[in-house]
Amino acid sequence: MTLAVKFHDLHPTPAATSLRDEILMGFRADQKFASPKFFYDQRGSELFDQICEQPEYYPTRTEELILAAAAADIAEIAGHEATLIELGSGASRKVRLLLEAMRPSSYLGIDISREFLLESTRRLAADYPWLEVHAACADFSCNMALPDGVCCERPVGFFPGSSIGNFDPQAAEDFLRGLHSLLPTGSGLLVGIDLIKDKATLEAAYNDEAGVTAAFNLNLLERLRHELNAEIDPRHFVHQAFFNEEQSRIEMHLVSQLPQVVAIEGERFRFLEGETIHTENSYKYTIEGFQGLAGRAGFEAHSCWTDENDMFSVHYLERG
Ligand code: AVJ
Fold this sequence. Notes:
By secondary structure, this protein is an alpha/beta fold. The protein folds into 2 domains: 18-43 and 211-283, no CATH class; 55-198 and 284-319, Vaccinia Virus protein VP39 (Rossmann fold), CATH 3.40.50. It is built from 9 helices and 14 strands. It has helices at 15-28, 42-51, 58-78, 96-102, 114-127, 169-182, 199-205, 212-228, 287-296; strands at residues 5-9, 32-33, 83-87, 106-111, 132-137, 155-159, 188-194, 237-244, 249-256, 260-264, 267-271, 276-283, 299-306, 312-319. The strands form 3 sheets. An 8-stranded mixed beta sheet has the order 1-5-4-3-6-7-14-13, sandwiched between helices. A hairpin with a 4-residue loop joins strand 8 and strand 9 (249-256). It is globular and about 60 Å long. The structure holds N,N,N-trimethyl-histidine. Residues 51, 59, 161-163, 165-166, 206, 213, 280, 282 line the site of N,N,N-trimethyl-histidine. N,N,N-trimethyl-histidine (AVJ) binds at residues 51, 59, 161-163, 165-166, 206, 213, 280, 282. Keywords: Methyltransferase, Transferase.
């Protein structure tokens, strides 16, 4: 039997080096921070999947409804025989909503979580035998090259889940400009964007009753303990998430419950009581606001779909 999934390992630097260097840099800052990409170890990816099933976390199920309803439209715009390239493919669940309608010739899933990526793309390949499936383990926030052997005819980028919301607006624009230079003229980009809405709904989505988002946030500290031998006690931190209206973003933090000193790779970091590690931003947009940003990066707004309550949006952008 041949290996159903063609695997490409594109780690630009050994994963461990980037984790250590980036975490240390973030902990040395006045406002301590960690990149949200470090949430996604095996356990973190599993917890994120569980977040998506929480009743308060509306983005996933809303986007899935939109995609299912728009699949035929999307297929018509993108045409058949496309190469569908998913950035941050995770469990590769949402793309299933498009495959039958679109009938692309190949699919490339790109994700930072290696084992998770392999499992998910193997399942996809087994379920869609007619589809050529590629998997690339990469940090797409810095690696902007496509692996060799991936057919790049009629590429359509797929960036669901409002993942682009992790970048601040300027970085999101720069990121899209990077995709612009990677993709040929006329290619498509299908992007999911969470919309600005009332504070209570937004905050509930990041403070689910079951505590899954809290576990997801705190799992970062477990990861630092296991992978960097950090001396840091997760029980001495609590999850915090709130909507920063001025910046139009959900902020997630880990709040130190007491004055404490933690050690990572022999370096000591002091925390005051109430001091935080800023672990994630999740920007929310208006439809026009996002289209303007995409336009500045060279992408034209072709179509946009929303749900009936205007909670979430899916955009088909065309590379000009
Ligand atoms: C994957 C970045 C889109 O911002 O909603 C969910 C991550 N963090 N709950 C988001 C997340 C906490 C999610 N993104």
